[in-house]
Request: fold
Amino acid sequence: MVILLAESMPTPVSHALAGTSVYLWSRRGRDPWFFLAAVFAACFADLDFMLNLLTGKNYHHYFTHSLAFATLFFGASFIALKALKRPDPGRDAAILFLAYLTHMGLDLFSKDTTAPFGMELWWPFSKEFAIAPVILFDDIERGTLAKLFSAHNWLAVGREVVIVGPIVAASWWWSRKRA
Ligand SMILES: [Zn+2]
Reply:
């Protein structure tokens, strides 16, 4: 778990908030399972940490953080939603695709202290790594439990909540107004 959280930039907190925001914008009404699916889609790219654990190599910020992989995720979601007999699998898959895109959107604006900086956004067409010229989110210190729960990291999470939280609040307000 330490390794899973260690190199997330930003942490799953802001990704889950972004997924929540997309869910609220989608106006699906009360749909807890779809809400969980949107949060899962927004966090999915960081499951590349599992590959790190399995292979001992670094896959973080590689192909799972690409637009092509997000498109594959859309296709897989569509098939799964159709199999689950959702009334509008195309629309739901598009919403989950949007939630997936927020992941790269947030990671692009995150401080990265280890090369290659940013993520392999254009995989498999290019091996270039993309990062925004402006950094909004701080990095997460890692290595030991003490570092993981350091003041630096709490401040970094606080910063994520301050930036992404108002977007969730605005989305909630908007969804209530449209309900
Ligand atoms: Zn990520």
Notes: The longest helix spans residues 151-178.
